[in-house]
Design goal:
homodimer, alpha/beta, three-stranded antiparallel β-sheet, globular, Rossmann fold, Arc Repressor Mutant, subunit A, 10 helices, DNA-binding, seven-stranded mixed β-sheet
DNA sequence: TAGATTGTTAATCGATTAACAATC
DNA sequence: TAGATTGTTAATCGATTAACAATC
């Protein structure tokens, strides 16, 4: 409850903040910078929750274990959000980062594959926090179709094309088995969906067409951890 | 079943392969290289599944959408795994990558937090594929404690220190709420566990002590996708 | 005003790619 | 042997950090 109140507050703040007249992007932004933006988003949320209203690049750098230089460089790819001698207004900066990341665009998503992972994602507050609305789930199993998960209806995959004709969908979350990934991706693309968040393990490469794909491999992170554990074991012996 | 057979085959192959006398690591390996290793692991598995026994850096580069130069550079951080004029033996290369990543070290993990995400991870074949053995789960909720998830017993969190005294544990998977993250991490560290795979959203920073931490933020990837969707929307208008 | 801190340019560092001699 | 492809060095490219003038 308290948490939801926070969500509301934060989003109200966004509307309250006067938008800068500077453009949202200055030239091409490097992939390295883009990948860091969600982390700023997370830390700024936390600062707002703590009631902090103003922060310097130096202080934020300390909290995030990065250099102040990097923070200033990163933010200046999108505009001058700070003020000399003062630092950054936390609410304003958060609002700008949200703008850049498309929070508040009201993107609508469907989850395809209502297995363990699909269910867990459906129940996760992550989508809500990032302004993404999960409007439906799809599966092929008659045992699951017709059920409701966390307020989201599970439909038969056969109904997917018709559903997409009637409802605008921006993002398809693929949480089905690897073997079904390619076929599902085809259906998603032919339904005109432009964003694919792919958990299937089968990497999807659409070249440089109109479709944006994010391939997620949770296991890669586990392996990085194991690499480091193993490396330390080796060094000791 | 068929899949399990594949697992067995692959791991048998590892044992069959004669180990190189060259060292496992040549000097310091850059973070960029390390982060790419799991992707080689995945693609090599797939090649083995397809029955491919030999591959050149050029061919692998084509499949993985990277440069052949990068592949050769990456692999040569760990040793000369190929043969001039021939390329790489897929099984041998896979075995070497497994060695480097600690697959086959038989690392033992516990999952702390048996909520949606913890359950979904417990049921995921990912751990098994990477040679990590999930031996127990822990939770504070009396509704869950005592149950079995995918063959893994859920214990009361109160029993955690005693359990760790009696069983060697390498990795703690944290899938509990953000608010409980710091306390859980303390318990994990004082139990002598050296690897933390952290899904709580609260980043854990243990400095450069003996503990290895991997902080996972699934939502970051969603935001990167949204950034790109949003950017394209902006460019069109 | 004086002090603080940004925005931005220049310098450094690291990572990727290209090229080719070594060699199977 | 001739052809192919690696391993490795050198060249390029991109990303990070340092420095400082601009300015609030």
């Amino acid at each position: 409850m308290d948490k939801n109140k926070f969500e509301k507050d934060v989003f109200l703040d966004i509307d309250d903040v006067e938008m800068s007249d500077r453009g949202v992007v200055r030239g091409n932004v490097s992939p390295a910078v883009i990948k860091r933006l969600p982390r700023y988003f997370r830390y700024l949320r936390e600062l707002i929750r703590q009631g902090k209203s103003r922060i310097s690049s130096g202080e934020l750098a300390e909290i995030m274990s990065v250099t102040a230089s990097q923070i200033r460089q990163d933010l200046n790819c999108f505009g001058g959000f700070g003020q000399q001698g003062y630092g950054y207004n936390v609410n304003y900066l958060y609002a700008k980062i949200c703008d850049i990341l498309g929070v508040g665009c009201g993107y609508r998503a469907v989850i395809i594959g209502a297995g363990n992972l699909g269910m867990a994602l459906a129940r996760n507050p992550m989508f809500e926090k990032r302004g993404v609305d999960v409007v439906a789930m799809f599966d092929v199993s008659p045992n699951i179709v017709g059920k409701t998960v966390s307020g989201i209806q599970v439909y038969d995959m056969k109904a997917f094309p018709a559903y997409c004709d009637e409802n605008h969908i921006d993002i398809a979350v693929l949480t089905l088995p690897k073997e079904a990934a390619v076929e599902a991706a085809k259906q998603v693309i032919s339904a005109g969906i432009e964003g694919i968040w792919n958990f299937t393990g089968k990497e999807i490469d659409t070249g440089d067409g109109p479709v944006v794909v994010e391939n997620v491999h949770i296991g890669d992170s586990l392996m990085t951890l194991c690499y480091e554990l193993c490396r330390r074991d080796r060094e000791q012996s």
